[in-house]
Request: fold
Amino acid sequence: MLSSLASRALRTTFTTQNVLKRGFHSSIRRNEQFLNANAETFSKAISNEDNVVLVDFYADWCGPCKVISPIFQKLFEQFSHADFYKVDVDDQQDISQEVGIRAMPTFVAFKNGSKLKEIVGANPSGLQELIQGLA
Reply:
């Protein structure tokens, strides 16, 4: 009986963590612009002609990625002129390879399908300067 309860608690915790990990948003409209991108979403997002698209390439096991993630979320809430996406490099290896990601976290700004700028590492001031410079 105890093992059944423990198993159920672990499943609930795992499910809750997955939901919370991907649940960054400030409104329904903006929620669509801050999500874990797959190949289809990524291609569509970076070809945006209207807005700059800022992509956070991260890994769940990456300590610096976890540290900078709340800062990325705050920037998402502050800057409505850009669309924000996250790409898990372990789940989306094709995207990571296509973009040339060599370290995590890496933040890449795109517009019209072209890479504008890139920041490698958990550098909060650099990330903020990047997004402000693209305004």
The CA atoms of residues 54 and 109 lie 4 Å apart. Residues 2-21 form the longest helix (20 residues). Strands lie at 34-36, 52-58, 82-88, 106-111, 114-120.
